[in-house]
Design goal:
heterodimer; A: alpha+beta; four-stranded antiparallel β-sheet; 22% strand; globular; B: seven-stranded mixed β-sheet; six-stranded antiparallel β-sheet
Amino acid sequence: MKLLTHNMLTSKAIKQVNTGYPLLIEARDVKVSEVEFNPEFIAKIIPKVDWDCLRRAAEQLGHLDKIPASVPDTYENQQEFLKQAHHVLLEIELINGDLVCPESNRKFPVTDGIPN
Amino acid sequence: MKKTDRKLHKKQVKALNIVKKDYLINSCEEATRNLLVCNAGLMTGTSREDLLQALEKYGKVENIIMMPRKSYSFVVMNCVEDSKRVMEELNGNMFLDSNAPIFFLFIDQVPEIEDPWGTATPPGLQVLPDFVSAEEENCLLGIFSAMFENEEGSGGDLKNRRVKHFGFEFDYSTNNIDANKPISSRIPDKCHDLMERMVSMGLIPHVGDQLTANLYSPGQGIPPHTDSHSCCTDWLCSLSLGSSILMELKDPQEEICPVWLPSRSLLVLREEARYCWKHGITPRHSDIIPSCLTGKRDAEQPRGNELTLHKRETRLSLTFRKSLKGECECKFRNFCDRKRSTVLDDLSESLTLNAATVESRMVHQVYEEIAAHFSETRHKPWPRVVDFVMSLPYGGVLLDVGCGNGKYLGVRDGLVEIGSDFSHNLLKIVRDRGFQGVRSDMLYLGFKDGIACGIICIAVLHHLSTPDRRIFAIQEMTRVLEKGGRLLIYVWAKDQKKEEMSSYLKQNKKNFKSKSAPESSLQLGEFGLPVHKNRTDFQYQDLLVPWKLKSSDVSVEEKTFNRYYHVFQEGELEDLISAAGNLIVTESYYDQGNWCCVCKKM
């Protein structure tokens, strides 16, 4: 499960949960791989990303150092920033662990990269 | 050992291991009196009598032990010589109408089995011994033999037994009663009293109005049958007078359950025993039973498990029924003979009540089992779906709800693609192909509001079993769409002939004949749903479609799984979408046997 995917997941479906976002991560196995960098693509998807959620997720996976604190105004042109964003969004993957609902504390296992 | 002997030996070892899972026994190199018989058991439809008949040619059989749901038996021969002879003559041969060769093994001991005669009975069956006293028995025998002598009461000599009907006639060719045609012969008063007794004992809810008296001479029997559902209510009672006898019950899988009916006992059949199992009496002159059943005990064998021969004498059975006016209302729809329209009327109610269970058993579990094979047959993306995906904006998020093996992921660049499905096994295939997969229920999508610019839901919505659930799923997908985002839904069409012929129907050459095929007989499957005959026109909207699972391992048996589908009428999908709200349909078409809609979130 890439952090880009995690950014879109919620446990709102559970009864008595209002927001269910962001889901906390309890990581066991994390994998870092190489994915082809496409700056235009990253620039397009940045607006859809909840940056706070991404930061917290990166921190829980032990990769906080790789991610900038916030999105700069002219991010589309800043290669360094885009590269870092690319790395965090697409190259760090949670293979085994749990996602935890922030309200109900219910756990959703991630097995072999697939969140349940 | 010769090559054939080695093969035989291998099979014997395999068979032994199956048994060892259940019982602590060991095979012996040297001959013993105890034999394990493989591929012959109650589950293969073999009866004790069959086995005895086959074996006694070679020696004296002391005991036969058969357990329900097992395809093997234990036999104890009287002496080692006899046992050796059985082994020599029968090991590895086909006999007893078997499909596979029968193997024998010498074993050290026969296990202690609490109920060696497997007298566990089907649900709804009861035998009440001493229901009538010896005096009453004599009295009844007197009344009825007089009638048989004088030919009172209707009914004549059938090939086998002599039969008389009272109240209504029970027709043995249809196993049915015509409740509109009572006959003149009245049920004798003494029998009425018996029925009152049954009611007072709580065995039946009310007295019956039909009686059949059957007179069996030794050697006569009655073929296995189930009284048709519409002939009488949910109970059948049969009083055995004169000789005791062994009756055989057969379950839908043809497994045999022997039931000993001592004279003066009352047999009560209700529920499964009445509606789903067959009952019959094999024409024989004697029955082989453990002596304990006859009430005799041998000083040497206090448990009474040793076999004894019980000779049959003349037996009179009095079977009581209450005739049924109107349709059967049993819960065993698979076995019922009620009219088709009634079956379907009840179906929508049944689906509403059981929706989640139907989907769990007939969709979720099935796809988990067939995942690998299913994926192999799903590799060509449909062009018009690809067109939709290509039309999505660069950098947008595409969610494939019910992605299966991820056939539509990776079709183009420049999209954030996520596949969502309920099946673990299919998602593994998605992940192995390098895509992001999330396990989610389409009724409760685990995604944030408004993140997707495009959602595809291809051949998935038709697995939901009620209109409400389908609408709910559409609403969930609408929630996840961003404003202005687009949704493509494909569902299987009931009418498969819209374009010249869908590829589905093309696969069956029979469909090319201009004359339409006669309506095939209705077959009911799980939950009372009609089972569809593959590659023919759909006859119902809610049905089960078989999937023949082919395994790459040739030795694995081909298994068939039924999948639940609701196939759509023209315009039905548009109705669901407008009921869901917040979506407008921008395009509507028929493609490859599916009804398709493109919609936009307002």
